[in-house]
Every structure is written in C-alpha cells, then in structure tokens.
Specification:
With 338 residues, the protein is of the alpha/beta class. The chain is 34% helix and 23% strand.
Length: 338
C-alpha cells in the first residue's frame, strides 16, 4: 500500500523532477531572487496585446525552457497538468494549446503548483506515464483585473494585502533518477474559517496550511525537525504569523524551519508589496529558482513544499461568501549521490 494515514501517499518508487524553469516579470526580477530566475522580461505584456495573452506567453516560455533543459521534445511528454487563476483557466488553454500534448487543466487557486506536482507525481509513480509536464502561472495585471479593482482606480492597499506574482514555473517529472525526488504527498482539504476579507489572503489560507501540515505530521509520524525547511506558498508575513500560532496550538512548533515563497520573492519594504507575494506563479517560480537548487547541491536533504490557495471568485465574493482555503503538501528529497 502506498497510502498512509488518513490522507497521505508515500511512493514506493518515487518519481523525479528531471528539470524545471522559471519565467518572471520586471518587478520579480528586481527582487531578492532576481539573479536566480531563468528568464526576466522587462515588458510585462511579453510582447502581447492583452494581459491574458501575456500570461499565456509566460506558460509557453516556461514549458519550453523546462523541456529544453531535459533535452525533451513535445512527443516525449505524455501529459500536461497545468492551471492558472483566470476564469476557465484560459491562460493555460491558450498558452499550451500549440504543444498538442494531452492536458489536464487544474484549478486550486494559488495551491495549483502543489496540486499539479501531486497529480503529475501520482501519474508517473503509477506507471501511467514515463514523463509529464506540470505548469502554473499568474500575472499581476490579469489577476487584479479579474479579482479586484481596475488598476486605474488606484485604491489604497491594506498592509495585509499580497502582490500577485507575474511568473510561470514548469517542472518535468519522470521515472529516471535525477537530483530531486518526490517521496510523498498530503493532499489538502477545504478549510473555511469564516474570512471574508479578499485583501487578506494570508488569514484565509493559513488555517488550510495548518490543517494539511498537521495531518502530514500525523500521517507520516514526523515532526518539524525532520525537514530542513517547511515552505508554504503565499501566506505572506501576516499568514505566516497565523500559521505558526495555529500549529503551536496543535503541538507543533515550525517557527525554526518555516519560510514562505511570498516572503522570499519580494523585498516588501523596498518594493511596496505589503504582506508579500501571491498567485499561482509565486510558489512555482520560487521553488524552481530558489529551493530546488538547495536540494540539488546538497545544502538540504528534505523539504516540505506546501502551496496554499484561496478558493474565491468574483461571483462568490460579490455574493458575500466566505473565502475558504486549501493547501497541498509535497515531500521533496535530494537524491543520494552515494
């Protein structure tokens, strides 16, 4: 049995991350991780006519770079697992259409990087594909246009707000050995703590991150010190504080090993990003550019990657619904070099 505990999976034959790629916009390139990204574009429209087309271009470029690094062509990829924040995942549909590879379109809000890695890993581990591609993206302007006020409105942002990352991360998963393997998963449940403030995503998502990490520890009989880092997706500084407190109440102190992609990707004071970064692209590009290299070069041995998502839409928000959250945990380990 590869299932473990109440909701987790421990792979008997772990799939590997064969390659990854990160493509970001100008603001992300000016942040602390700027030198680590594969591609930075000074034009946030990426030569396109609309923000939505620009986000599709992000995905197209990230996918191409990831396959190129692995020396693979379209015909070598069995399936794509991909998603974004836009309605009907149009950034994915139009961005990856020309590849003509069977596609599973996903929506897990900002947790989609974890969802796509989880489903892709399950597919490879089960023998349904030798190689799959997982892709996620977000774009500041397309997200603001869909979920919040038009940029021209120039509304004041509260300190709890996060800045949607313009970026796309792509990962090629396969059966052959590589520097990083996906050893297990804890898929998350929907958790609703009654948050209604759409400008406070950290508070909405932190309870879901707590629920997933708690059940991960219980299912695998592990503790925080079993990981070099526990990395959430885009809780930002506000959500990080809430998550640490919630887990302490459950008997787990992750304060010494926790970090957050939304905190890492921007310098919030210098770049005016308030609580930090968010969006599907946030955790994907930060994992690819910043965290995977630490496993590959032997600095770390094991991390828990937990992208987080706020499950709202313009319809649900305008109808007065709460903002539930979800988080998916992925165990990433360095392949032994002995």
């Amino acid at each position: 049995m590869q299932t473990i505990g109440k909701q987790s999976i421990c792979f008997a034959h772990p799939p590997y991350i064969l390659s990854s790629a990160s493509v970001v916009g100008k603001k992300e390139g000016e942040g602390p991780l700027g030198a680590k990204f594969d591609m930075i574009c000074d034009d946030d429209k990426f030569g396109s006519d609309t923000w939505e087309e620009a986000e599709s271009t992000l995905q197209k470029e990230a996918a191409s770079l990831a396959m190129g690094k692995a020396k693979l062509e379209n015909k070598d990829i069995r399936y794509i697992f991909a998603g974004d924040l836009l309605g009907q995942t149009i950034a994915t549909s139009f961005g990856l259409m020309d590849y003509q590879i069977p596609l599973f379109g996903l929506y897990g809000a900002c947790s989609t990087a974890g969802e796509s890695l989880a489903l892709g890993a399950m597919c490879v581990a089960a023998g349904y594909a030798e190689k799959v591609l997982t892709v996620t993206s977000s774009h500041f302007a397309s997200a603001e246009k869909q979920f919040r006020y038009p940029l021209e409105y120039a509304n004041q942002r509260p300190m709890s707000a996060t800045w949607t990352v313009t970026g796309s991360g792509a990962f090629v998963l396969g059966q052959e050995k590589a520097g990083v393997k996906i050893c297990g998963l804890t898929p998350g449940r929907i958790v609703d703590y009654g948050i209604r403030d759409s400008m406070n995503m950290g508070a909405a998502m932190a309870p879901a991150a707590c629920d997933t990490i708690y059940h991960h520890f219980e299912d695998f009989d592990r503790k925080p010190s079993d990981y070099d880092k526990i990395i959430t997706g885009d809780l930002g500084s506000v959500g990080q504080e809430i998550l640490i407190k919630l887990l302490k109440d459950k008997g787990y102190d992750i304060s010494n090993v926790h970090t957050d992609c939304g905190i890492e990707i921007f310098d919030s004071e210098k770049q005016g990003t308030d609580s930090g970064g968010s969006g599907c692209g946030c955790s994907a590009v930060t994992l690819s550019a910043h965290f995977l290299p630490k496993l590959i070069n032997g600095e770390w041995k094991r991390i828990l990657f937990v992208p987080t998502g706020a499950l709202l839409s313009t319809v649900s928000f305008n109808e007065g619904q709460n903002v539930p959250g979800i988080a998916h945990a992925v165990i990433l380990e360095a392949e032994s070099k002995t």
